[in-house]
Known about the structure:
The complex is a heterodimer. Chain A is α+β, with helices and mostly antiparallel strands. The two termini of chain A are 47 Å apart. A 4-stranded antiparallel β-sheet of chain B has the order 2-3-1-4, covered by helices on one side. Chain B has helices at 14-26, 52-61, and strands at 2-9, 30-36, 41-46, 65-71. In chain B, strand 2 (30-36) and strand 3 form a beta hairpin.
Amino acid sequence: MEHNHSPVSIKQEKNLKGKSVKESAEEEEMRLWKRRLWGSWVFALPIAILMILERFFDIMVFGELNSLVILLIAFPVIFLFGWPTIRGGLRGFINFYFSMDSLIALGTIIAYSTGILSMFIKVQDYSGVSAMIMAIFIAGKYIESKARGKASQEIKKLLELGAKKARVLRGNEEIEIPISEVKVGDILVIKPGEKIPTDGIVTKGQSAVDESMITGESMPVEKTIKDTVIGATINQDGILYIKATKIGSDTFLAHIINLVEEAQGTKVPIQKVADKITNIFVPAILVLSALTFIGWVVFSGNWSSALGAAISVLVIACPCALGLAVPIALMVGSGMGAKNGILIRKGEAIQTMKEVKIVAFDKTGTITKGKPEVTNFVSKVNENYFWEITGSLENMSEHPIAKAIVTKAGLKNYKKFTGFSVVRGRGLEGKIGKKKVVIGNRTLMNERKISFKGFESQIKSWEEEGKTSMIVAEDGKVIGAVAVADAIKDDSVMAISALKRRGYRTVMITGDNDTTAKAIAKQVGIDEVIANVLPEDKAKKVEELQKKGMVAFVGDGINDAPALKQSNVSIAMGTGSDIAIEVGDIVLVKGSLIGVVQAINLSKATFKKIKQNLFWAFGYNVIAIPLAVAGVLNPIVAELAMALSSISVVANANLLRRVRI
Amino acid sequence: MKKVKLTISGMHCASCAGNVEKSLRKVSGVKNVSVSLMTNKSIVEVEDNVSEEALKQAVAKTGYKVVEVQVG
Lengths: 661, 72
């Protein structure tokens, strides 16, 4: 705690260092495996040739010494290149933490010992077999590690996404510094084609920014002054000056990485069974192998066959396929999701998703953009003049509707009004020169005795669409009207119809009045509307829906966190860098509803893969172990089958990538 | 309560991860453990008085090594 003065930079330093440590540790491990692979096969291959010649062609290359030569060549395979496995495996017998290695270690050592024993008593020599088992085991592990690396490629890409350097403005000078030296408040310069170093706010310039690596959104996003930018996204065509707002482990990217990593540790419920079996698997196999040996000795009296069967049981049993089945599929699935801006936070959601019958939505910020916009207007006067008057007067107010109108007017200079006043809940009025301007709703017009007959039908139709109308009058005469609405997101209609096609019941829960709510629901095609719901009651409504079936709730987490929590699967929508990361089993980085459909597709595809994998892994062990007990399988074939089973589970998970979501 | 993220090297099979998880759970003050074979990481929720050393030892006991510790 003595480093209290600058916790942020310390945290970040650790982070960077940590990443490089992890990277090299992983690389080093792969290198060691590779060395073991080559080394073991250089010796195992001659053994294989000698064994084949002896067995099938009756050729003893070294005559009587053949067995001894094999015994000698087998030694380095097991005790040099196989040493880490032997050591790790034997430790299991000391501290009772048995692993896969314990089985292989025991199997190969017993097999190797027969080579020595056979010199003294009559027993089959399995020493060549022991070398083959070890070599195949190492090869299998190597291939499996490679395939596992592939399974995590999206997530690795995510880890490497961050910028390494930043160009910071110091006085008038631009200097390049490592990303770790950037401080909050620094002004950074980003040229076209460069990576935005960290999260920030644009202070100068404008450009299109490719945010696809973070949000999955393929279209570049226009950025200009005051817009927020996300670190690791790519500036495309203009120069941007940004002020760094977040650095190191506080950035959006760091949050995403953390979330994705944490998700890997969460469990899919179906995994529990597999885990239970994995945990008792190795001891159980040790016992079974011993029983097999005893059984064979008792019933056949043939020590050689007894040994062969016992070794086969040891090396064929594969807890790996079983233990990997679920996490590997989750890894590939969540990696695919991350690439598309869908972050799976809880593995459980993948399993629950398939039971979901109802998809409930919050309205504001979820189905709609959450920000009022001018959607329509009519003007009887010159349009420029109309916006000049309207925009200038509305500029005096802070109301969200006023802000929407000011944005639409887009004025550079505002006219000066005198005698400005707000009429609460109705509108506002003011004087410009000698002209009196009133902008407001029906009520205000009626109160001021201003007739808006000519606009009546227009206003009515807007209201039926759930929009708010503001009428503009100048000196007692209406000159136009503006419709303001919280516009629907571009793909909400498409997403909801896609959900309905998949058989989900869609429900909208909103605090809006019935008219507005129904109007919006009609436009997007929502089945059921629950209107006039106070934020604190949304969870209760979800609970009521749950009586009819499992509910997925989609919201932005701003005032619907309890509803998200209540639902069976919660999907939190984000917009740009403000994502509700702490709520939601699934987080959608880009705030579009199509993400909900993708998240559902992805969950279902991933869960299907999980089931397939478990089926294979269980099936493999259920069939293979009895065969080994029965002594039908040669130990080499047994080991080969074991290696293939875990590779196949990983490969099958990688096939998930073919699914289009 | 604090959350500790351990990066562990050497785990290469499911029973390895299971062993690490079991061993970490036995450390007193450890509330919640998850070990991911895929990311080689373990996230451990522990009471504030649990030392990094105790966690490292628990991992070492099963034959694997903690290469990085992140608290937070």
